[in-house]
């Protein structure tokens, strides 16, 4: 019938851009780096295929140490972002008055609209040897000479938490906002203490938001480049930095692609593990506007 | 002459038959209702007439011409949606002018027609109001005006009063009927609310499980139901199940489950001695005291005051709870809970229908 | 009484203190970055030498303001160009995706839906290198087999746009689909019933309804594109957008207050855009 033909045509017209986008910009390029990562240059225009790039990665401790360090710090950043962000989200969603709630939420969102670069630059201005904190400390007389607060792990973690905490707060606020206060009331009414109510009612309810926030934050942190470089300096040992170096500085695409694949596989594995452990799915968490 | 005819309409969704061989004719200028519980297929039926669903088989004719091959935007039927579906991004005038613009009529004509139809629905000069500024009843009238300005052959209304509060709903029933009278257009009204259907319609079709149980005037349906479903669905009824003891001259003697025997009119011709039946007696047919041909004993359980539709609840000796409606609160009968009473009604007011058991 | 709040006054006070500290933490680097744009000094550092607008408008050495710095202006121009183009494309594709996933039923829909979300969780650096690698493979293949030179497949504006498009489309799709989900389909049926053609229904009912979402999707995409660094870094050619230019300046020349001026300009600009999108959505809310 004519109407089903129209339906089919519109389906094809809608599906085509989607298919082109996903195939040409996501799937094929990922296969492309997978392909490059398996190839080794033996001479000009001559290649062999095998896992030699991966073997090279494993046999060079500085590489896999960097990956492990990146993963470990990303997990740390994620945990800290949750610890810092949850009270804020809870305050916005459950405690603040109706009117101040929107304003607070907006205030929390403002840094989101400012480039990573500007934020990192701001921290540099505050924390470096000639920066605000150092000058202030000297003025008060707490220290006698300039203090360098940049280029250490604590600063990198602090800066990363700053960069990503908003992505934790937004999904948390939207799930906590949906929770009826009567659930908490019922919890107390049935004899729960503050801690049990929080642990047994609030946290399980917020779980999709927590998982969504953690996934986004973890991926953003593991994939971040500017903050670790600018706040951590040359010794920050961040994995994306290695990728950049292989690609741009050494022009060694094969090993750069290998690192890319490893980062992707590794972070996907962590995300998959997180979803598994919490019993959530990607569609139910990240895509929940 | 019929404005709308449906012939053996069937709609299947996979293995599920939503509308099963439905046929009916709606005479020109009449108010026709389809009454049924939710999920009975009435909305599917209406969507087929509007062209949003294609029937699996059967035919739909408007003014004698089949419209099956006509796409929904070309059919001469207009529809008032359940939640009215007024366009929130347009003001009242633009909403009403929408259909005229689609037809490509010129601006001056459109302005005049919009003003005239607003006049007719009693909201003159509201062209520039926003939809959100209107009250529920006004929105209702705009939704009707938006359709009527196109002078359709048939106006479909899909439970348009469902979203209104009770008081407004009562008023809108009367108003709708008047609007229909004024426009002299055929209305096909869909509802699950029997009072809406009875009050407004010239004819009502009672629909159940995809099929029409009975088509008739409101009085016929109320006083002379043809099936147990109609007897139970249209109006209030006491209902007891039992077994046929004997049958003669259209009257059935029924042994009610739990004890007691009553006589009632046979509602269908499948009734046979020993068969299972349900007996329906309307509350307003039953009164306290004796003196009529059917008498049962019981105990008053509670008094339910509700003005004209007040009831006495009587627990009969056989354990059934009966609603008694006649002469309850006119002061002629004074009873109090716990009192032993007799209830009675005329045989002609009882009706028995076969049940599939 | 709000049962969700802590009950003792001390704890309430503590909680409020925490919120203040958090907001201060959020504001600190933005404030620091913005503040030194107005300091009459050669370095973005204390002491405070007095207020000046030189870092915006001065045209003489050594203090060249941002509006006279040719490379920064060129970067800004590139950023605007990329941002507008890529956001328009992403909104168009996102609209298609929203209709595809909200209106159509097809086998494998859930898998495709996850595929649609995936670009958001792939690290930007990897999106960048994968598109770089893929485009180069095609370019090399064309060159070797057919002798055709397609320069736009080499790092440059075109690849930057593709790279940003690849993940911005996910964002726009989610924003537009969320709005489309709330759309009452009977509005379309009503329009159809009143005699409109399918195209007319789309133009007069569905798209006007989606307009606020299209607008905010555009703004979000534009802002994210404007501030994107990771993906862009891998794909950039000679036409660097502003963030890359700034980064180069920071690494090669070191920080000068002109970077603070750019930061301030960016903060004000994106703040206003974000505010505009909030206002548009707020204004629309009572109508729905």
UniProtKB/TrEMBL annotation, chain A:
InterPro entries attached to this UniProt entry: MetI-like (IPR000515), MetI-like_sf (IPR035906)
Record domain ABC transmembrane type-1: where: 67-274
Transmembrane portions of the chain: 12-36, 71-92, 104-126, 154-173, 202-226, 257-275
Domain of life from the UniProt record: Bacteria
Location in or out of the cell: Cell membrane
Membrane topology classification: Multi-pass membrane protein
Keywords: Cell membrane, Membrane, Transmembrane, Transmembrane helix, Transport
Membership in a protein family: Belongs to the binding-protein-dependent transport system permease family. CysTW subfamily.
Name of the protein in its database record: ABC transporter permease
Organism of derivation: Shinella curvata
From TrEMBL, chain B:
Keyword tags: ATP-binding, Nucleotide-binding, Transport
UniProt key word ATP-binding: yes
UniProt keyword Transport, yes or no: yes
Superkingdom, taxonomy of origin: Bacteria
GO molecular function: ATP binding
Gene3D superfamilies recorded: 2.40.50.100, Nucleic acid-binding proteins, P-loop containing nucleotide triphosphate hydrolases
SMART domains with a match to the protein in the record: AAA
Residue intervals of the ABC transporter domain: 4-234
Pfam families reported in the protein's UniProt record: ABC_tran (PF00005), TOBE_2 (PF08402)
Similarity comment: Belongs to the ABC transporter superfamily.
Name the UniProt record assigns to this protein: ABC transporter ATP-binding protein
Species this protein is from: Shinella curvata
TrEMBL record, chain C:
Membrane topology, as annotated: Multi-pass membrane protein
Record's subcellular location: Cell membrane
Annotated ranges, domain ABC transmembrane type-1: 76-277
Protein's organism: Shinella curvata
Keywords: Cell membrane, Membrane, Transmembrane, Transmembrane helix, Transport
Main location: membrane
Residues of the signal peptide: none
Pfam families found in the cross-reference section: BPD_transp_1
Highest taxon of the lineage: Bacteria
The protein, known as: ABC transporter permease
Family: Belongs to the binding-protein-dependent transport system permease family. CysTW subfamily.
């Amino acid at each position: 019938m004519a109407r089903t033909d129209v339906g089919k045509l519109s389906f094809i017209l809608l599906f085509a851009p989607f298919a082109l986008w996903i195939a040409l910009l996501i799937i094929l390029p990922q296969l492309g780096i997978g392909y490059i990562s398996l190839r080794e240059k033996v001479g000009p225009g001559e290649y062999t295929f095998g896992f030699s790039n991966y073997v090279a990665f494993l046999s060079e401790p500085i590489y896999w140490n960097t990956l492990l360090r990146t993963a470990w710090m990303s997990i740390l950043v994620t945990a800290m972002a949750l610890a810092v962000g949850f009270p804020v989200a809870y305050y916005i969603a459950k405690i603040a008055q109706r009117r101040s709630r929107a304003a607070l939420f907006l205030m929390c969102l403002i840094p989101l609209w400012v480039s990573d670069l500007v934020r990192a630059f701001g921290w540099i201005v505050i924390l470096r040897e000639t920066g605000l904190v150092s000058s202030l400390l000297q003025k008060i007389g707490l220290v006698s000479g300039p203090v360098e607060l940049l280029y250490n792990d604590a600063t990198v973690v602090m800066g990363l938490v700053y960069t990503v905490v908003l992505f934790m707060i937004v999904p948390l606020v939207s799930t906590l906002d949906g929770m009826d206060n009567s659930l908490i009331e019922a919890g107390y009414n049935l004899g729960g203490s503050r801690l049990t109510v929080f642990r047994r009612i609030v946290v399980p309810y917020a779980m999709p938001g927590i998982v969504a926030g953690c996934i986004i934050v973890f991926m953003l942190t593991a994939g971040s480049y500017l903050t670790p470089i600018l706040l951590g300096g040359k010794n920050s040992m961040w994995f994306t930095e290695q990728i950049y170096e292989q690609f741009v500085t050494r022009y060694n695409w094969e090993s750069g692609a290998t690192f890319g694949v490893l980062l992707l596989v590794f972070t996907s594995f962590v995300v998959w593990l997180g979803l598994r452990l919490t019993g959530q799915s990607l569609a139910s968490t990240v895509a929940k506007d | 002459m019929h404005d709308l005819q449906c012939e053996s309409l069937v709609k299947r969704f996979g293995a599920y038959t939503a509308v099963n061989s439905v046929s009916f004719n709606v005479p020109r200028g009449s108010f026709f209702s389809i009454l049924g519980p939710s999920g009975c297929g009435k909305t599917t039926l209406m969507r087929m007439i509007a062209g949003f669903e294609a029937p699996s088989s059967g035919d739909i004719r408007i003014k004698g011409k089949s419209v099956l091959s006509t796409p929904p935007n070309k059919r001469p039927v207009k529809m008032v949606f359940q939640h009215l579906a007024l366009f929130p991004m347009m003001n009242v005038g633009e909403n009403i002018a929408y259909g005229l613009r689609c037809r490509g009529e010129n601006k001056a004509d459109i302005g005049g027609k919009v003003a005239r139809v607003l006049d007719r629905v009693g909201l003159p000069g509201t062209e520039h109001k926003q939809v959100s500024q209107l009250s529920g009843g006004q929105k209702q009238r705009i939704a009707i005006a938006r359709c009527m300005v196109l002078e359709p052959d048939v106006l479909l209304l899909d439970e348009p009063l469902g979203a209104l509060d009770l008081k407004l709903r009562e008023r809108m029933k009367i108003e709708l009927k008047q609007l229909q009278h004024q426009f002299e257009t055929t209305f096909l009204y869909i509802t699950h609310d029997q009072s809406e259907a009875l009050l407004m319609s010239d004819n009502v079709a009672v629909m159940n499980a995809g099929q029409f149980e009975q088509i008739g005037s409101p009085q016929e349906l109320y006083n002379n139901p043809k099936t147990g479903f109609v007897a139970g669905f249209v109006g209030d009824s006491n209902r007891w199940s039992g077994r046929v003891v004997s049958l003669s001259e259209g009257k059935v003697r029924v042994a009610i489950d739990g004890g007691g025997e009553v006589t009632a009119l046979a509602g269908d011709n499948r009734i046979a001695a020993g068969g299972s039946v349900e007996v329906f007696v309307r509350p307003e047919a039953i009164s306290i005291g004796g003196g009529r041909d059917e008498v049962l004993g019981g105990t008053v359980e509670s008094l339910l005051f509700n003005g004209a539709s007040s009831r006495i609840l009587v627990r009969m000796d056989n354990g059934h709870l009966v609603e008694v409606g006649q002469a309850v609160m006119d002061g002629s009968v004074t009873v109090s809970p716990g009192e032993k009473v007799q209830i009675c009604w005329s045989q002609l007011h009882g009706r028995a229908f076969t049940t599939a058991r | 009484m709000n049962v969700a709040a802590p009950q003792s006054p001390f704890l309430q006070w503590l909680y409020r203190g925490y919120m203040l500290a958090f907001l201060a933490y959020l504001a600190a680097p933005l404030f620091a970055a913005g503040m030194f744009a107005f300091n009459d000094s050669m370095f973005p550092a204390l002491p405070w030498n007095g207020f000046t607008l030189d870092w915006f408008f001065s045209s003489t050495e050594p203090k060249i303001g941002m509006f006279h710095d040719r490379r920064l202006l060129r970067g800004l121009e590139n950023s605007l160009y990329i941002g507008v183009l890529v956001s328009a494309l992403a909104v168009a594709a996102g609209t298609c995706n929203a209709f595809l996933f909200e209106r159509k039923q097809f086998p494998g829909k859930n898998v495709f839906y996850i595929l649609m979300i995936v670009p958001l969780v792939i690290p930007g650096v990897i999106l960048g290198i994968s598109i770089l690698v893929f485009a180069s493979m095609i370019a090399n293949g064309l060159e070797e087999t057919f002798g055709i030179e397609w320069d736009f497949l080499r790092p440059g504006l075109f690849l930057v746009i593709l790279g940003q498009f690849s993940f911005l489309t996910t964002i726009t799709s989610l924003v537009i689909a969320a709005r489309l989900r709330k759309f009452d389909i009977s509005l379309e049926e009503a329009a159809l019933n009143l005699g409109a053609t399918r195209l007319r229904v789309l133009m007069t009912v569905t798209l006007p309804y989606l307009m606020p979402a299209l607008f905010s999707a555009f703004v979000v995409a534009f802002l994210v594109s404007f501030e994107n660094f990771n993906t862009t870094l891998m794909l950039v050619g000679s036409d660097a957008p502003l963030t890359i230019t700034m980064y180069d300046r920071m690494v090669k020349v070191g920080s000068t207050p002109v970077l603070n001026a750019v930061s301030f300009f960016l903060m004000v600009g994106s703040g206003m855009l974000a505010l505009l999108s909030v206002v548009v959505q707020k204004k629309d809310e009572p109508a729905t």
